[in-house]
Amino acid sequence: MRVGNVTSPLLLRHSFDSGPRSSAVALTCGFQPACYLVCMTEARITPPNRNRRLLWIGILGALLVAGLFLVFQALNENTQFFENPSDVVAEGFESRSDVFKIGGLVKDDTVVTQGLTTRFLIDDFERDMAHDLHVTYTGALPDLFREGQGVVVSGRLTSPTHFQAVEVLAKHDENYQPVIDYRDGEKAPRS
Amino acid sequence: MNILSNIGKLISYLANPTRFLRFSRFATPISGWSALVLISVGLIISLFISPPAVEHGQAVRIMYVHVPAAWCAMAAYTGIAIASLVSFVWRHNLADLVAKSLALPGAAFTFLALVTGSLWGRPAWGTWWQWDGRMTSVLVLLFIYIGYMAIWNIVSDRRQAARLAAILAMVGWLNIPIIKFSVNWWNTLHQPATISEPGAPGLPLELLTPLLLMFLGYTALLAWFALRGTEAELATLKRQRKAQSAPAKITIEDVPS
């Protein structure tokens, strides 16, 4: 019997431990109402310590999940890697910081290259845009930068319709195609 | 319910060290050899035989070492969490050993997933690292693994170490669904899962075959690590118990001068 062995209340050692099954021990654990409830509900089911531990894990687990849910609710926008272009062009948009990221599709037939400077329109992955959003970027582009492909641009808005990017990342989708596509009956490489 | 009760029966059957050793005597070599064969064949197909992909070119081969590593990282952690629950609630001592021996391979797989993911990110996205939901949550998983192993190493009392480690393992498991669903809940740079349901398009057979082989090979390797590690832990424990129960020998160093 290790009733006296109350070393660390943080560990809930005495309430979890395989101590005697009387409620007197449970009451020493500092969570009297809960322990009392456990002692009442466990009745004469054997072994009671096991059920008490299971109940504790259930209660604390549920509390943790609820807490985590609230944390992510509160963080909401801060957990997003990028803004949607449709939100950026929507009325009343305010970015959380001066420099931020926008993720969307490079609109077809809009890429214009002048030396190292690239200009294109960015489209939303899903929703319609209130108006066009122009992106300008000077520098090397990732290999997967293509028209109609996903892109994440980091930079600042210079006007409601213009975004000056300092970094361009490619965002590809989850579909992969072998170069040799036997299903179409063709064996020539497709690119 | 039937499956659950069968798993429960299996766990209580294997909780006895003698029966576990009888089981591992054939399960360990089976998992070890199948890991060796599957990974060898899988690597040859992944690296030499399978075709490159349209957008990604040759870099698509990184996927075959990356995706199974990430899967094993999460599977090992889930294994630790389940073993910890069994150890914590039912006090099956063997479950502690299983959990403990899953930690290092799990951490290694997490590290491998992070490194190969970084290697994928450079050619595919144009960056080695970004703080998006998927990458950050996997990095957190690595830190949890390190913390878990640290508890086992720092706390000298075995029983207390087992309980503390089990609490961390169970709380830390909340990170696993976060990793899994991060790409669905939030905007991330990482793409969502390709194989979200059986028969989902997105990975034709030429690319699916090497991935599946590597997936099975890695899983067998993880099983081998777990079984081999548990056997080793059991042997260590046995030796310690023997040393404790042996009559104390007083050596010359023990005598205060």
From TrEMBL, chain B:
Q: Which Pfam families match?
A: Cytochrom_C_asm
**Residue intervals of the Cytochrome c assembly protein domain:** 12-190
Gene Ontology MF term list: heme binding; heme transmembrane transporter activity
Keyword tRNA processing listed = no
List the keywords (alphabetical).
Cell inner membrane, Cell membrane, Cytochrome c-type biogenesis, Membrane, Transmembrane, Transmembrane helix, Transport
Residue ranges spanning the membrane: these are 26-48, 68-90, 102-121, 133-152, 164-187, 207-227
Q: Does the keyword Ribonucleoprotein apply?
A: no
Cited InterPro entries: Cyt_c_assembly, Cyt_c_biogenesis_CcmC, Cyt_c_biogenesis_CcsA/CcmC
Compartments it resides in:
Cell inner membrane; Membrane
Give the bilayer topology.
Multi-pass membrane protein
What family does the entry list? Belongs to the CcmC/CycZ/HelC family.
Function per UniProt: Required for the export of heme to the periplasm for the biogenesis of c-type cytochromes.
Q: What is this protein called?
A: Heme exporter protein C
Instruction: Cite the source lineage.
Output: Bacteria, Pseudomonadati, Pseudomonadota, Alphaproteobacteria, Maricaulales
Name of the gene this protein is made from: ccmC
